[in-house]
Amino acid sequence: MIEVQKVSARAGRFSLSNVSFVVERGNWAVLLGPAGAGKTTLLETIAGVRDASGRVLLRGKDVSSLPPEQREVGMVYQHALLFPHLSVRQNIAYGAKDERGLAAARELGVESLLDRPVERLSGGERQLVALARALATGAEVLLLDEPFAALDPRRRIKVRSALRRMQRERGMTVLQVTHDFVEAGLLGDVAIVLENGAVQQVAPPNVLFRAPASATIADFVGAENVFTGSIEPAGAEVGDAAATMCFRGEGIELYAVGQRTAGPGHAVVRADDVTITTAGTVTSARNVLVGEISEVALDGVIARVAVRIHETTMMAIVTRASVEDLQLRTGTPVTAMIKATNVHLC
Amino acid sequence: MSGSRATRLATIGVAVGAVVLLGLLLIPVGTLVAHGGIAGLRALGTDPELRQSLWLTVITATAATLVTVALGTPLAYLIARRRLPFASVVSAIVELPLLIPHPVAGIALLLAFGRASALGAVLSRVGVSVVGSATGIGLAMLFVAAPLYVSAAREAIARVDQRYEAVARTLGDGAWRAAWRITMPLSLRGLVAAAVVMWARAVSEFGAIVILTYNPKVASVLSYDRFTAYGLDSALPVAAVLVLLATLPLLVLRSLRNEPAEASA
User: Fold this and answer.
1) Cβ(B207)–Cβ(B221) under 8 Å?
2) What is d(CA A62, CA A55) in angstroms, rounded to the nearest whole number?
3) If 0-12 CB within 10 Å is exposed, 13-18 middle and 19+ buried, where does residue A44 land?
4) Which residues of chain B make contact with A84, given a CB cutoff of 8 A?
5) For chain A, is the Cβ count within 10 Å smaller at the N or the C terminus?
6) What's the predicted TM-score (pTM) here?
7) How far is A263 from chain B (nearest CA, A)?
8) Number of residue pairs across A and B with CB atoms under 8 Å?
9) Residue A67 sits at the chain B interface (C-beta within 8 Å)
């Protein structure tokens, strides 16, 4: 388990301010945030290589006053930081307590590199060796700073899966920095969003993507449609738990389900939740918006379609087949439909 | 004036300036070696006083360098990693001897370690004499040249990415063990270069030594002694041999610079 309580730290122009969160034992947490958010500083603080105030608990034990060598964490930096005066084998064996180093090297497919000097490794190979070196310590807590960034896509898939398997087998708790939302969705049991040194949201990745806590997070996690306006109640309450809310802004009106304080706010809609039709508008969808296609961008089997609605543009993702069947072209009049349950207000 | 003509004139100006400066540096040394080089090499075989003074110079300079490496490397590390309170004050103290005229440094050492001083009395009681001894020569060399070592060593250590140590610590090393196993090997070339520069500076020291220990004579004092007592011809071979001795560290430094750059991420 990794528990961070009100941690504040400063590292040059990066700082952390009152950061708190918990990653349960055996979970894989992904740390998301724009460049300069303080992600690496946070990992370093947990590892104990950077001074900080607040408390860090690992495996349920307060390690705030312990030096890094007593915290028993494995840390992998983005640039691998292999010791250049040692061979690959010596790097992996550096902190190894038993044969786990070789086992990790085998699992990650770097056995053939063991006798190579470090300077003859590619960026991806370096990251694999750095991972093997961290795993070789047998640490239960693993802190990874973009560990797959330099791997080619095929190898990344293999390594991710091998590491996930090892993590489950050993019951490791992992905190990983990533900028890859697909990776975050694949690996993360929980996602932590850090911005300007503060935690903005802690939630499972699917919740984070569907229901970001703010427009900034929505933007950051790649929500295609983020509108600014005002929110007010619309319609009858259903019991005490849910209500229909109405968002107005940027020339559109969107209905959403859920409780939300009235006032200024944002509406977030994922592009793959937008349905497009050229025919009638009889539908169960609560939001029916009439507009005109301003752009169709084909991307393999899918297409990103921009629909101009009054003052704003709504992005939709449809299949290439739909583009052809409906003959979607720039200037085609269309209707965009979104279920109220797919509109997130924040 | 057209652009290309201005460029040509600027290039010529820079080249002339470089040639003038190189001439100012090379002509005196070249003339000295041309006049006394052969005689100096011959004197190595026939002049026992010269051999003795060279031997004394090399031994004391080497001893001063080794002591400085042993004491100065941890200090350089602490300054480089900012693990000292008032690190900038400590740096200033270390660099202070570089700003003091060397005869003044000799006087300061004489006052601090001479027989009349409290420290000198204590040392004398344990059989160590600083004035008029090889110990005094080594001390004078250390005083004037150690700052060069500590400054250069600090730079070499600071060039090693601190995160290497951070990784070593997460792999189980304590702070000093990580410094020993990681930072020292990675900064080794810079540390050796720093030691070579210090050794060369110690070999060429005159001002502080001559105040503290005129006899036994190191090579620089011998060359001065012969110049004042017997004239230029007598001093030339000693001076030329000293110049040749100074080229050794230059060669070592050049070979170190030709190796691949130090590690940093």
Assistant:
1) no
2) 7
3) buried
4) 186, 263
5) N
6) 0.81
7) 47
8) 58
9) yes
